[in-house]
Amino acid sequence: MADGIPRRLSVVTLGAHDVAALRAFYERLGWESGSPPGNFAAFPLGGAVFTLYDAATLAEEAGGHVAPPAGAFRGVTLAVNVDEREQVDAALVAAADAGARVLAAAQDRDWGGRSGYFADPEGNVWEVAWIPDASFDSRGALIWPY
Amino acid sequence: MADGIPRRLSVVTLGAHDVAALRAFYERLGWESGSPPGNFAAFPLGGAVFTLYDAATLAEEAGGHVAPPAGAFRGVTLAVNVDEREQVDAALVAAADAGARVLAAAQDRDWGGRSGYFADPEGNVWEVAWIPDASFDSRGALIWPY
Fold first, then answer.
1. Is residue B61 within a helix (H) or strand (E), and if so which, with residue range?
2. Parent domain of A49
3. What is the greatest pairwise CA distance in chain B?
4. Which residues contact B86 (CB under 8 A, 6 or more apart)?
5. Any A CB within 8 A of B41 CB
6. What are the pLDDT digits (tens) for B2-34?
């Protein structure tokens, strides 16, 4: 048992090959970053902070790695949860309008919800999901219903 | 502008090659999952939900991808933010005790904070970070100070 580690997922950082272009995509989603222009941009999103950071710099800082190429599936997905079932479909349309590639159309899932997937211009994968009985706190953070 | 997409980062899912083993690692960090045993485990962590999902299943569901191998740097980092500067060092020791590999020792950063990095047993990278002037809401979710 590691008492020294809080139960927090505070920040998610995507290594970005073109921070400015990727930032512009997320701003087209309607998300706002107050960060000055540069190799980093932060988007506070409900209960977590989503950040973009120059891919090579992040890879080096995080232990001397090489950044994977843009477009490669990273084995990681991020999710935006919506309040109503039909908002999944609408959100995927909105993402496509902003320049995303829809990877999987909205569909009902065997766990009782509905979801679909899109990729940002560098191939980072997002799920748009509706979970029955989910609710959200005042900041928009998901309250896990299970 | 895509009005159809809420400003939320609700869930982060890591494709896991061995869900049970990876879940056990995170439980050794002191994090709790109420999920039944299987190919999925959810850990509510403050303002976001952290989940593990069978890597091949996630890759297929998210658009017919192939899962990257365990151990590869994914170009994505997740962060646990702590309240005090010296907790960065303690959290890295705690992670190592739980079976993590420390990738970058705690160090002061040029943005004024302190952080270090560790990898879980499948190579997924976490940063432990202290940000001056950060605070947290009642659920432990970071309030971005910038």
1. helix B55-61
2. 11-143
3. 46
4. none
5. no
6. 467 999 999 999 999 999 999 999 999 999 999
Separation CA B141–CA A50 (nearest Å): 13
Q: Is residue B59 included in any domain, yes or no? A: yes
Whether this model's ipTM surpasses 0.90 comes out as yes
Flag whether residue B21 sits within 8 Å of chain A, measured between CB atoms. Answer: no
- Tens of pLDDT, residues A45-91: 999 999 999 999 999 999 999 999 999 999 999 999 999 999 999 99
Has residue B2 been placed in a domain?
Answer: no
Enumerate the β-bridge partners of residue B50: B12, B43
Interface test with A, best of B1, B3, B7 (most A CBs within 10 A): B7
Q: Are B139 and B47 in contact (CB under 8 A)?
A: yes
What is the spatial order of strands in the sheet that A48-54 belongs to?
A: A40-45, A48-54, A11-16, B76-81, B125-130, B114-119, B101-108
pTM above 0.90, yes or no: yes
CA pair distance A84, B121, nearest whole angstrom: 37
Angle CA(A6)–CA(B15)–CA(B81) in degrees, nearest 5?
20
For chain A, the domain total comes to 1
Q: Which residues fall within 8 angstroms of residue A27, CB to CB, at 6 or more apart?
A: A33
